[in-house]
Amino acid sequence: MRLDQLLSVGDFERRARSILPRAVFGYVNGGTEDCLTLDANREAFRAVQFRPRGLVGVADRSQSVELWGRKYQHPFGIAPMGVTAMCRHRCEWDLAKAAANTGIPFVLSGLSTLAMETVREADPDFWYQGYIPGDREVIQPLLNRLQSNGVKVLVVTIDTPLGANRENNQRNGFTIPFKFSQGLFWDGVRHPRWSANVFARTLLADRAIPRFCNVVADPHGYRITEEPKGGFRSGRDRLDWTHLAWMREVWPGRIVLKGVAHPDDAAMAERMGLDAVIVSNHGGRQLDGAQGSLDALPDVVAAVSSQFPVMIDGGFRRGTDILKAMALGARMVFMGRPFLYGASVAGQEGVQRVIDILGSEVDRNLGLLGCREMDMLNREFIVSKGR
Ligand SMILES: Cc1cc2nc3c(=O)[nH]c(=O)nc-3n(C[C@H](O)[C@H](O)[C@H](O)COP(=O)(O)O)c2cc1C
Prior knowledge:
387 residues; 13% strand; eight-stranded parallel β-sheet; TIM Barrel; two-stranded antiparallel sheet; 42% helix; alpha/beta; binds flavin mononucleotide
């Protein structure tokens, strides 16, 4: 199939569903428990409608945005996603390279398997997302490694003090640490394209089981099949504001809190001198029943000063979704699954095509709204139905 026949993120999702083994697609696509938050993320967009302006003159349009003095070509970026090597061999490379080529931010997950020393060759400006334990002795060496790799933006995820209840993964036999099983083997056999790209290239060409090599300072990390000493999520449940206050003192770069849902947490982040927040519920993958991200956005924006960047992710699939968040005060929108579908279908080219689709949707709809640039967008352009 030619990539130009895939016209939307939805098309990529359907294609990825057919390529990926059921268990892997379930890992990517799924939510937790009853998927209330997964659904709420999408539902929130229906409740916000546009109120476009006419006769503005929109011949010259730009969707670029500025953040901390740096210009990005699109108002969106690639959210951190762990274990993407399950979807595509050297997936982080494809995501990072496509992001660098198109001038959007790429956030490398701490639970990735391509060493940051290599990712940096694809995108020297990658942001790093950490699952930081409440333990200074672990944090400090990690910060040193990040600094020596030129990382300037550190994203600390705060909605994952504990592992979530992902029943779909349990039903499909998908676990992290990863365990081979007969069911997974046959799932792979039924998906030969995936087996050739991921299974064969990883085990036959690399001759190694992928390792979580970016989670701590030691680049050796540990195998994705192995439970590290002290447990997989060791110490995350001890992380609190005192660690962030200390990190603010010792980390010279930007600190972004990801997974912010409550306005008071955003206000606290600003008071503490952190640099931004990302309103997020982890794509409906953590606390089920949490508010949809777009629903949570206005209160968070209202709780901080206008200079303090509020970003967002969760359920964005269309350019119009992105424009709604920007009109409500978001400075940047992140997406996870859409880019992973792109990578699963066609590696870097697939990611690039998803970026192009979203970019052209933003461009077209920005013009249809009666705006020439992102800064012209504000709440005047939207109405909320009954919320
Ligand atoms: C497969 C997958 C893995 C993820 N891994 C991480 C991770 O390692 N760290 C993190 O902060 N968020 C992780 N997330 C959450 C994303 O960063 C982001 O919040 C979410 O995907 C946004 O929702 P969307 O997929 O609907 O765009 C993951 C999401 C997916 C789909």
